[in-house]
Each structure stands twice: as C-alpha cells, then as structure tokens.
C-alpha cells in the first residue's frame, strides 16, 4: 500500500524537527528557504534522510525546483508511484 500524503508529511515534519526546525513553522505551505530558512546543506540532509526513511530515490534535478513542503510531498508521492510501477 502506497504511503499517503499525510504520512509523508508526518515523516518530513519529524525529520525537520530533528534538524532543529520549530515544529510550529512546519506546515504544508511553508517555503523551504523563506519560511524554514533551510540552506543548501540542510536541504541535502533532509533529502537524504527522507530517501532513507521512505525508501525513495529523489532526483537532484527535480529537487532543485521544489520550493514548499507541499511540493516535497508531491515529489515523493510521484517518485513512489514511479518506483512501484517499474
């Protein structure tokens, strides 16, 4: 059974909290740079942790276009669907 968007967001929320982001700031419409103040190293750390936790391979070129947490969830959902169909 594929992971729901809500479950993916919960994993993102937990991972960001581990990285020291205030949980009150972590919401679907939060922008990674402007709202959460993630720099490129934080973003790479987040992506690597999510890949491990969710067993998903995230493509660097697609990550570059992501700006909000909602987009992160959508990217992971799409990648999990692609992995499941191959």
Q: What does this 3D model show about the protein?
A:
The chain is mainly alpha-helical and 86 residues long. The protein has a single domain (5-85), classed as Non-ribosomal Peptide Synthetase Peptidyl Carrier Protein, Chain A (Orthogonal Bundle). Helix content is 58%, strand content 0%. It contains 4 helices and no strands. It has helices at residues 5-18, 40-54, 60-63, 69-85. It is globular, with a radius of gyration of 12 Å. The mean pLDDT is 90.
Topology:
Blueprint lengths: L4 H14 L21 H15 L5 H4 L5 H17 L1
Features of the shown structure:
Non-ribosomal Peptide Synthetase Peptidyl Carrier Protein, Chain A; mainly alpha; 86 residues
Structural class: mainly alpha
Helix content: 55-70%
CATH superfamily: ACP-like
Distance between the termini: 15 Å
Q: Oligomeric status of the shown chains?
A: single chain
- Give the amount of beta strand, in percent: under 5%
Domain unit count: 1
Which CATH-level-2 architecture? Orthogonal Bundle
Q: Count of helices?
A: 4
- Please write the string of helix (H) and strand (E) elements: HHHH
Q: Based on DSSP secondary structure assignment, what is the total number of beta strands?
A: 0
Shape: globular
> Segments where pLDDT lies below 50 for 5+ residues?
none
The average pLDDT value, as a whole number, equals 90
Put the structure in a nutshell.
With 86 residues, this protein is mostly helical.
